[in-house]
Specification:
The relative contact order is 0.17. The chain has a four-stranded antiparallel β-sheet with strand order 1-2-4-3, sandwiched between helices. The chain is built from twelve helices and four strands; from the N terminus they run H-H-E-H-H-E-H-H-E-H-E-H-H-H-H-H. The protein is an alpha+beta fold. It is globular and about 60 Å long.
Length: about 250
């Protein structure tokens, strides 16, 4: 398992071979088996195999062609709809969505379930790539997938058989990510160290050399507010009123 996790790579090109229903079932079972806050299981996964719907999601995700090309596209949603129904069933108030902590809980639960799905898919010989682009046009994604209130799309996952080999991207130095006792303050030096490794990796692939810091700085400069979540979160019931009242 450790070797599998360390061997991860993302694929953007897939063959026409379909993902077997049994393998998809195992992936979904692995995602569902992930731990969650208070065992609330605040995650739903929409499996999209329809070519037409995958094409629509491809456009909504920022014209990412691999979303349409992959035979299966999973949309991971934080889901408090069932918690709302449980509250109604038990005659209890439901005010969780007014607390910003609901967003942290939902996003964390989705991330854990996604990680399980990724590991399961790769263990079955499939290739994957997570797609944050589903948050670009969440209003349209919500409409397309008919998501009820208190359900919100957080991330997608392409799954399929890779059409080509893909090199593994180098990671930041361990000291930049794993800290002992307190946060390591030498982040700038570690980033500069990683920039060299990043440029060498791109050069080896015949790609344009550029620093990792340059790529990240440019992305966040051009995307200060990613997608329409600020509006659609409220539309789906996540008002975060408690945060606004402070």
């Amino acid at each position: 398992m450790i070797r599998l996790l360390k061997n991860h790579r993302s694929y953007r090109h897939y063959s026409a071979q379909a993902v077997e229903p049994e393998k998809l079932r195992l992936i979904m079972e692995a995602a569902q088996a992930a731990p969650s806050w208070v065992n609330g299981q605040q995650v739903s996964v929409i499996a999209v195999r329809s070519e037409e719907r995958r094409q629509q999601l491809s456009v909504l995700s920022g014209n990412q062609k691999h979303v349409a090309e992959a035979p299966v596209f999973l949309v991971f949603c934080m889901d408090f709809h069932r918690a709302k129904l449980a509250a109604e069933l038990e005659g209890q108030p439901f005010e969780t969505a007014e607390d910003v902590d609901a967003l942290l809980v939902g996003a964390a639960d989705v991330g854990i379930a996604l990680a399980n799905a990724v590991a399961a898919a790769e263990s079955l010989g499939l290739g994957i790539i997570p797609i944050g682009g589903v948050r670009r046009n969440t209003a349209e994604v919500i409409k397309l997938l008919q998501l009820p209130q208190y359900v919100f799309p957080v991330v997608g996952l392409c799954i399929g058989y890779p059409a080509e080999e893909q090199p593994q991207r180098p990671r930041l130095p361990m000291a930049a990510v794993c800290h002992e006792e307190i946060y390591n303050p030498d982040q700038l030096g570690l980033i500069e160290e990683y920039n060299v490794v990043h440029r060498e990796s791109l050069k080896a692939q015949g790609l344009t050399e550029r620093d990792w810091s340059s790529m990240i700085a440019r992305f966040y400069a051009l995307n200060p507010q990613y997608g329409d979540a600020q509006r659609t979160l409220k539309q789906q019931g996540f008002t975060c009123r408690n945060l606004n009242q402070q």
